[in-house]
Amino acid sequence: MNILIKVSGEVLQKEGDGILDMDILRTVAKEIALLKEKGHNIAIVMGAGNIFRGRALTDSDLSRVRRDTMGMIGTTINGLALEGVLQQLGLPTKLYSSLKAPNVITYNPLTAKTHLEEGEIVLLSGGTGSAFFSTDSAAALRAAELGCDLILKGTKVDGIYDKDPNTHDDAQFIQSLSFEEAIDQNIRVMDQTAFMLCKENNIKIKVYSKLPFSNVHRALEDNSFGSTVSN
């Protein structure tokens, strides 16, 4: 199976302590290695919440394009870090970026798909390469381009709710729903662009608690764990 994992920047740091934590990076890399041992082809879209969010500094004089570009650069920093640790474990990797960067391959969907199908771990950074698009949209776009069957999306809660469970005690857990329902109900776990891309390309989305990172295995194997959005 071709799977795409969205790795948020927050996963790579200890809460409130620095930008990157090497022990956490090694743990993440080891869990990815276990997924490879199970025979999956793995693509990873990097986030950058530990470094900079494009939607930050909205009250500053920085334009949205500049802020989003800063966030996309942050994803490449995280990609370089994770690639280095994966390679230390002896895993074959290819790091791509939608933005040109030294020592990083400029993203090309045809070569990236070839590397994925040859068994290399494909790391995808730089978002979509354009402002105004989230890394969720980047994950959906790359999954479609690379022929992935499933997106694994870790969040701060254990799945999808009809409202924010952190602020509403009566929030109801939703174990499964269609893309049409997610779009109509304005479910905010991913943006509408991402949902539409996955709907049109029949890519299932699994939403689950991103911590600990080892939850990725249960999300992949246990249908009752987390929430699923599909056709």
Which regions have little confidence, pLDDT < 50, spanning 5+ residues? none
* Biggest sheet features: 9 strands, mixed
The proportion of residues forming helix, as a percent range, comes to: 25-40%
Q: Which sequence of strands runs across the widest sheet?
A: 4-3-5-2-1-6-10-11-9
Could you explain how this protein is built, in words?
The strands form two sheets. A nine-stranded mixed beta sheet has the order 4-3-5-2-1-6-10-11-9, sandwiched between helices. The mean pLDDT is 94. The chain has 231 residues and is an alpha/beta fold. It is built from seven helices and eleven strands. Helix 1 (22-37) links the parallel strand 1 and strand 2. It has helices at 22-37, 64-88, 109-117, 135-146, 179-184, 192-201, 215-221; strands spanning 2-7, 41-46, 93-97, 105-106, 121-125, 150-155, 160-161, 173-174, 176-178, 204-209, 227-230. The longest helix has 25 residues, at 64-88. Helix 1 (22-37) crosses helix 2 (64-88) and helix 4 packs parallel to helix 6 (192-201). The radius of gyration is 17 Å and the shape is globular. The relative contact order is 0.16. The two termini are 18 Å apart.
Layout: helices, strands, pairs:
Blueprint: E1 2-7, H1 22-37, E2 41-46, H2 64-88, E3 93-97, E4 105-106, H3 109-117, E5 121-125, H4 135-146, E6 150-155, E7 160-161, E8 173-174, E9 176-178, H5 179-184, H6 192-201, E10 204-209, H7 215-221, E11 227-230
Parallel strand pairs: 1-2, 1-6, 2-5, 3-4, 3-5, 6-10, 9-11
Antiparallel strand pairs: 7-8, 10-11
Helix pairs in contact: 1-2, 4-6
